[in-house]
Specification:
Chain lengths: ~160, ~100
């Protein structure tokens, strides 16, 4: 762990630092940096998470499909898939609005993979899920409500 | 050492459908045990998939991914006999790699 870098990160906001690093060419666009992701996983609520991902201006797109049941019986295991028909999809992320931290998973779609992933997630309660897709440097999103009969974060 | 992953990779029309089942607790860090102590977070935070050694997909996960995670994705231009390997790393630094042949 590079402490100097961590401190710099704390001083600057994650999003603007990412922008700065992009400008000076330290980061390859397309791959989400570890620092950006660390911030995004800590963020609470959709607006803060989108901002941490640099996707605050994401436009709603009909080319993103969220594949999931409308009603999930068990919140501990909710199958969710994201499919993007947007050309040059670079990365995809899944956010759950009412989870303690919204970001569930982010995927770098490198050359050779199709823009389609499925996973199983935990949901504390019925909530909107949001798929964020980065394609050709721009952000797009789609939203779907999933009702949960039994929450998945109890203990 | 963590239990092996179950991986299936089936190629149809040159696109391989890959399904992976990993064995991991995926503890959120928000749950309390029977004596009321918080159970520390323990989850897979990175999964890398490669085709014949070349990375094609990378997943970054938080604790909201379900216990014993399931992951499905598709690889272009993957033929029967190609090798798909999956590596996961958790937040304690433990890792595991498994490989299958595309069928």
């Amino acid at each position: 762990m590079n402490h100097q870098r961590r401190n710099t990160l704390k001083a600057a906001s994650g999003a603007s630092l990412y922008g700065a690093l992009l400008t000076i060419g330290l980061l390859k666009p397309g791959q989400v940096s570890a620092q950006t992701l660390a911030e995004a996983f800590k963020a609470q609520g959709i607006p803060a998470t989108l901002k941490a991902l640099g996707a605050a201006d994401a436009a709603t797109s009909a080319d993103i499909t969220i594949i999931s049941p409308d009603i999930a019986e068990n919140g501990a295991v909710v199958p969710v898939g994201i499919r993007s028909a947007i050309p040059k999809t670079e990365s995809m992320a899944l956010l759950v609005e009412k989870n303690p931290s919204a970001l569930a998973g982010a995927y770098d779609i490198l050359e050779g993979a199709e823009a389609e992933v499925s996973m199983r997630i935990k949901m504390g309660q019925s909530s909107d899920v949001i798929a964020v897709v980065k394609a050709d440097g721009k952000f797009y999103m789609a939203r779907k409500e999933i009702k949960v009969t039994l929450g998945g974060c109890g203990g | 050492m963590a239990d092996p992953m179950k991986i299936r990779a089936v190629s149809r029309n040159n696109v391989a459908d890959v399904r992976v089942l990993m064995a991991h607790e995926m503890e959120t860090g928000q749950r309390k045990d029977s004596s009321g102590n918080l159970v520390p977070a323990w989850y897979i935070n990175e999964v890398t998939a490669s085709l014949n050694g070349k990375p094609v997909m990378k997943a970054h996960w938080g604790p909201a991914i379900s216990k014993n995670p399931y992951l499905q994705f598709k690889i272009k231009d993957a033929k029967k006999g190609d090798k798909v390997s999956i590596t996961w790393v958790d937040n304690k630094g433990e890792k595991r790699t498994d490989e299958v042949t595309v069928g």
